[in-house]
Design a protein that fits this description.
The structure holds two protein chains of two kinds. Chain A is mostly helical. Chain A is built from five helices and no strands. In chain A, helix 2 packs antiparallel against helix 5. Chain B is mostly helical. The longest helix of chain B has 39 residues. The termini of chain B are far apart. The chains are: A mainly alpha, B mainly alpha.
């Protein structure tokens, strides 16, 4: 397996492509897809940190009794992955509500271009 | 290592395609490609449960929802033909690049500490080099993740179910059609 840095850099690149997509596109659905891309990038970095927890917690492990190390590693790795599951749940909820808002806007304005939607502006 | 680079290049290519395609359907299909390659990366790190979860929940459920809405709205490609703000494209790209450079600098700064930690672990446990950092399988198995989720994270898990309920109700309320003869103040 490649080391942690490769995964974090890949995650940063994907996140910045997501930022680019949010800033650039005017189609609300494409903006939502770019947000999903950013959430995925964060998930990747969470899983990478969870898988490399032995290195990250090296200093803590050094000062710990040996019989607790395995338990700590197990809990930390699983916790990182539980965070990913929670992020996926939030992403699902966000997609459901966001797409409902897009449908509502499309019904009202007959467009999903975000430049056409400024009812909350002033 | 080769698997990592192949999957990473597929992911970055797909992500760029998501942003640059004109048609939302093409973007959605490329986003599915990105999510599948990320699932491969999860599996590479030993998180097999999350890889399956990624394919089922993201590439399966969420992207089907996206495609469903795109098809439902019947978006036309030429709706976004003329771009009144050409500067938005380049400024957006410049800002994203700026954030990336910032992130890489912060990463390099943080990695000093990390490298020191990596050096000390290999001195503590002889025979464990920093490259062999995949935890044993039971650390990231479905059993271990489920045990943590239902014991240590039981309270956030319950909150999540309330969140999903709120999202379902919110989506139904927002997306439904106005009933004729309903009070205006209630709907708007």
């Amino acid at each position: 397996m490649p080391s942690l840095e490769y995964f974090i850099i890949l995650s940063a690149i994907l996140f910045c492509i997501g930022v680019w997509g949010v800033l650039k596109s005017r189609n609300a659905i494409v903006i939502f897809m770019a947000i999903e891309l950013m959430l995925n990038a964060v998930n990747l970095s969470l899983v990478a940190f969870a898988s490399n927890v032995k290195i990250i917690l090296a200093r803590v492990i050094q000062t710990m009794p040996v019989d607790q190390v395995s338990d700590l590693l197990r809990t930390s790795t699983a916790s990182g992955q539980v965070y990913v599951i929670l992020v996926m749940t939030v992403a699902a909820a966000e997609a459901a509500v966001g797409l409902a808002i897009i449908i509502s806007i499309h019904r009202m304005k007959d467009s999903v271009n975000v430049d056409d939607v400024n009812i909350m502006k002033w | 290592m080769i698997i990592f680079f192949v999957l990473a290049i597929i992911a970055v290519f797909g992500a760029v395609m998501v942003v640059t395609r004109k048609s939302p359907v093409a973007s959605a299909v490329y986003l599915i490609l990105v999510m599948c390659s990320l699932a491969g990366l999860f599996a590479l790190m030993g998180a097999l449960f999350l890889a399956a979860f990624q394919v089922i929940v993201y590439a399966g459920a969420i992207m089907v929802l996206f495609l469903f809405v795109i098809m439902l709205l019947n978006l036309r490609r030429d709706e976004f033909g003329h771009d009144p703000r050409i500067i938005q494209k380049y400024l957006g790209f410049a800002f994203a690049l700026l954030i990336l450079i910032q992130g890489v600098f912060i990463l390099g700064w943080a990695m000093k500490d990390y490298s020191a930690g990596a050096g000390s672990i290999s001195s503590v446990e002889s025979g464990v080099t920093p490259s062999e950092t995949v935890p044993p399988d039971d650390y990231s198995s479905a059993e271990s993740v489920a045990e943590t989720l239902f014991t240590k994270f039981a309270y956030p898990f319950e909150i999540t179910s309330v969140l999903l309920l709120a999202a379902i109700i919110g989506a139904v309320v927002i997306a439904r059609k106005k009933q004729p003869g309903q009070d205006e103040e209630e709907e708007d």
